[in-house]
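Incident review: delayed structure delivery

Summary: a single-chain prediction request sat in the queue longer than the usual turnaround. Root cause was a stuck worker, restarted by the on-call engineer. No data loss occurred. The affected request and its eventual output are reproduced below so the record is complete for anyone auditing the incident later.

Affected input:
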Amino acid sequence: MNYFARFYKYANEEITDPRTKDWLFVSSPSTILFIILLYLFVVRKLGPKFMKNRKPYNVDGVMIVYNILQIFLSSFIVIEIIRSYFVKTKPNLFCDAVNTSTEEIYLYHAFIVQLYFFAKLLELFDTIFFILRKKWNQISTLHVFHHSGMVFVGWVAIKYVPGGHSMLTLALNSFVHIVMYIYYLLLSVNPNLRTSIWWKKHITQLQLTQFFIILFHHLSAFIVNCGYPKTVSFWVLNHIIFIAALFTDFYVRTYI
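Output delivered after worker restart:
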């Protein structure tokens, strides 16, 4: 028990970023674990049971507002990472340690990472909309794993590495989501466009491209010693390899 207590203190207090430890949802892993487990319970048990004897709900109006919100949020994250991180701090792309000072610019980087984390939480509503519309074929194992996994990725980023080498990953992922939610917005405005819009295949290709860029980006941080936590890079590498394999399998089975 002493070993686990020491490890918990080390992981939850000693190696975390001191600036963000008291921010919303960050202080304890139990909070994020509860959110992920609640999401899985709703998706796998409560949602299907609730909709079993009900007709699909029309949530087109809500989805239009939701997709527009996601587009603006992701666009803001991308623009601000480019402006405040790449332009102002001119980072080393091979390896860039997180600056944990309380200078305004670095606190702002942490704020952007927090917004990214909130965006991952908000994206869980993608699945809720599928449930309410009874689009069961959309709720694949890949979909559920990816959404719950990205919530955890966002939490790790804000708790341990809110800035530095993480910023390119956040910018790439947010850019992909701009394209995705524009696609979803067009479909929510006119569902008949599903048969004529050819974006879906290329969105999957774009997702795979970002995975491989992130893979090499974090591989360089794992090899180069700059103070960026190698444990984080190692975890990201394993997560990206696994999720890229799932997406590649989906792409091959669906489009080839």
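Verification: The chain is about 75% helix and 0% strand.
Action items: add queue-age alerting; document worker restart procedure.
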